[in-house]
Amino acid sequence: MHKEILEDIGEKELINRLGKFMPKNQISDDCALIKTKNEKLVVNTDSLVENVHFNDITICPQDLGRKAVVSNISDLLSSGSKKTLGITISLILPARTEWIWVEKLYKGINKALKEYGGIILGGDCSKGNEKVISITAFGIQGELELRRNACKPGDIILTTGIHGLSKLGFMIKNKIKLDNNVSLSERLISKSVEHFCRPHVYPNFLKNLLQTRSNKKIRRIGCTDSSDGLFQAIQDLAIASNCKAIINYEKIPKDMDWPEGDKWDKYYFFGGEDYELVFSLPKKWANNLSKIDKNIYEIGYFAIGKPAIEFNDNNKNKLLEESPFKHF
Amino acid sequence: MHKEILEDIGEKELINRLGKFMPKNQISDDCALIKTKNEKLVVNTDSLVENVHFNDITICPQDLGRKAVVSNISDLLSSGSKKTLGITISLILPARTEWIWVEKLYKGINKALKEYGGIILGGDCSKGNEKVISITAFGIQGELELRRNACKPGDIILTTGIHGLSKLGFMIKNKIKLDNNVSLSERLISKSVEHFCRPHVYPNFLKNLLQTRSNKKIRRIGCTDSSDGLFQAIQDLAIASNCKAIINYEKIPKDMDWPEGDKWDKYYFFGGEDYELVFSLPKKWANNLSKIDKNIYEIGYFAIGKPAIEFNDNNKNKLLEESPFKHF
């Protein structure tokens, strides 16, 4: 069967075809348009690079397109965006890329937009040796400003969901050798691959936050997402807010089949791409929220002190001595 | 001398350093913020890819940074943006990239923003094998909507400035063999290299358009920029507006030293990256505008007919038989 590649199609025809995935009023012009009211737009840009963030073995194009959108929406949510308006897409693709790959990518992109709101506003496509999917997403700032620098000493540190699963899914997909001494349950294997390939975010997070707010005067809370790992997320909050995070190791939510040991703790803390929200709230608010949302866990608190992370169990602090997070 | 490369610096320190090029209120958070009123935002995304759009021989990082912004602002202007708010930057860089290269790129970016307005709103940086600079630029839609599909039969076709110079500059920089039979003037050589490395746009264009408007009821005019070449720009207008462009070859503005011949005509029409505006206006408006702005030339008109380009001098139509524009 003849496989249709981009080199055969040409740039103009490619742009025509991509236009079919866009709303009618946004096609065929130099720029995209966003109608605005008196509000703040929240804007986020994220790129997925072939052989750094993905490859053809680890993820299919439909999941990749969906994930590229989800990673941006996660950042919008972690800033307190109440509504996703849309995205622009900048693609870089090798000339030998098959059209069907691009079509599936766009199907995945539109799947995520259907799930979480927003439309394709515009984009461009260039030739390059490696695939790159750069997405810029636009949301509307809600009533609560979620910011890295808004954590306060005394605040409880919370997280949605469980970490490490995406990293484990990535390693399983890449057939990277795991711990010889443990055998993973089928359930954990399939759940981890699911987390890596088809991550989810929390569109109800902001609504639940507002519903449980004990003091209406509080308009800013500390928050980021764990796209670079739980450790990095807590560290970013601590540095931006200039306070010390004390983590209760026992309260960290782990999957029931997650193995024990330092190696597995490292996958958990430094894995990345889980897209969970990591945030801080005054105690009463934190208690109210974790009662109504069973996906939310209190894992520690912020204290006065130089920006740092400490476990209350001193034996666990050796975990933090080296940070395997290094993308360059 | 030790050259500091990104691999040594690490991603977190790199992000810290890039933060210094940004306004204080935009640093260290997941998203960028744009305050809006009741208006339309004009958004454009453009990527420059190493070995497709640039390489280390053809352009220095400072010029590259400036050009990446200018190419986006050109698209904003061609949609009728009255003010550039700012940009987000998505960089993909090899681990061996020197920090000084990145610093110079940002100096060039800020140079363009100082010239044409706007600030750095945010961005991200990832590792990759080839350098990519993706910029998303934000402007405010002015009173006049400039759109590809707003040309009308009877409209005069106009262009700012002279085409082909950027292509010639690119070829000179890359030592691509030119026509043996012509010797280029020193003036044309340096002007062409200047156009390729340091293109300019027309921030007064919209003001002059409004000032010369003969009929205040006209709110939409046909316009695009010539980033993909003059031919492509006219074709895009003709297709989007569903009419035929008749070009008067004699009226095409050429540099006084531009050589004659089919080869040079092709460089002129298909060159690209000149970032001139190509647009259409009712006759009276066109006359008024070209009188007050000496950089603007009337080069033809739109007529009823299937989307196409024709020269009024039939001998020249063979030029259009093949379009060398092909980025894939």
Write the CATH fold name of the largest domain in chain A: Phosphoribosyl-aminoimidazole Synthetase, Chain A, domain 2
Q: Look at the structure and name the CATH superfamily of the largest domain in chain A.
A: PurM-like C-terminal domain
- What shape does the CA trace of chain A take? globular
- Biggest interface between protein chains, with counts per chain? A-B, 68 and 68 residues
Q: What is the total number of structural domains of chain A?
A: 2
The top-level CATH class of the largest domain in chain A is: Alpha Beta
Helix coverage percent of chain A: 25-40%
The CATH architecture of the largest domain in chain A can be given as Alpha-Beta Complex
Tally of alpha and pi helices of chain A: 10
Low-confidence stretches of chain A: none
User: What is the rounded distance between the termini of chain A?
Assistant: 40 Å
Helix-strand makeup class of chain A: alpha/beta
Strand content of chain A: 25-35%
The strand line-up of the biggest sheet of chain A is 6-8-10-7-11-9-12
Task: Count the E strands of chain A.
Answer: 12
Radius of gyration of chain A: 21 Å
Essential attributes:
homodimer; 328 residues; alpha/beta; 60s Ribosomal Protein L30, Chain: A; Phosphoribosyl-aminoimidazole Synthetase, Chain A, domain 2; 2 domains; 7-stranded mixed beta sheet; 4-stranded mixed beta sheet; 25% strand; globular
